[in-house]
Design goal:
With 53 residues, this protein is low in regular secondary structure. It is built from one helix and two strands; from the N terminus they run H-E-E. Strands 1-2 form a two-stranded antiparallel ribbon. A hairpin with a 6-residue loop joins strand 1 and strand 2. The N and C termini lie far apart (67 Å).
């Protein structure tokens, strides 16, 4: 038999512990050539361009 908690962990305490577990959206920008949404500092997955050149 393993160890058991003495008291129930409240919803507020559980929420404070999980405050840093949220998913973070990466920085997104618009491709200057085709207008699709792409990740910043990455080539466009649709048309393959990286910069305006």
């Amino acid at each position: 038999m393993g160890a058991l908690p003495k008291r129930k962990i409240s919803k507020a305490r559980k929420g404070r512990r999980r405050a840093h577990n949220a998913l973070v959206v990466k920085g997104m920008s618009v491709c200057p050539k085709c207008g699709k949404v792409k990740r910043s500092h990455f080539e466009c997955s649709f048309c393959g361009t990286y910069k305006k050149d």
